[in-house]
Amino acid sequence: MLAKSPSFTATVSAITNAFGDPTRRGIYLHARDTEGGVTAAQVAEQFGVHPNVARHHLDKLAAGGYLEVVIERPEGAGAGRPSKRYRVPVDAKTDVITSVRSDDLVLSLLGKALALLPRDKAEAMAEEVGQEYGRAMAQGLTGADRAAD
Questions:
Q1: What is the DSSP string of 118-141?
Q2: What is the pTM of this model?
Q3: Which of 7, 60, 96, 98 has the fewest C-beta atoms lying within 10 Å of its C-beta?
């Protein structure tokens, strides 16, 4: 059995916390698709939530590294809190949401293909593929070269 890596567990928890809420997923997609990023006021208006709720979602995405925060203070601005603009980092390696959506198609196809196999063969194949995939993920997250125990 493959030992659980603290790094793997933390990664899964971070993704679940960041995108487990449908409103937060929508806010991420909106920020990704809006040139220059978004403010809490814009998100509040777009999603029909209070600005503090919008700010909470944006800050949670920023804390997970899915959005970056740019502090703006327009020239001639008086006293008060500077404006925060949230945007998807330019150097983001992958688009988490899009990759999950494209996986939906593959999963649907796989499910239908497995339904055509006898149950014992489908279960054996699914287990084998799952173990191989789990090993590859663990190695990628930890840099470990060891196989399952």
A1: -HHHHHHHHHHHHHHHHHHHHHHH
A2: 0.55
A3: 98
CATH of domain 6-91: 1.10.10.10
For residue range 98-121, list pLDDT tens digits in order.
Answer: 555 555 566 666 777 777 888 888
The per-residue DSSP string of 4-63 comes to PPHHHHHHHHHHHHHHSSHHHHHHHHHHHHSTT-B-HHHHHHHHT--HHHHHHHHHHHHH
Residue with tokens 């740019």: 70
- Contacts of 138 by beta carbon, 8 Å cutoff, 6+ apart: 2, 3, 5, 8, 144
Q: pLDDT class for 40, splitting at 50, 70, 90?
A: very high
Residues 6+ apart with CB under 8 A from 42: 34
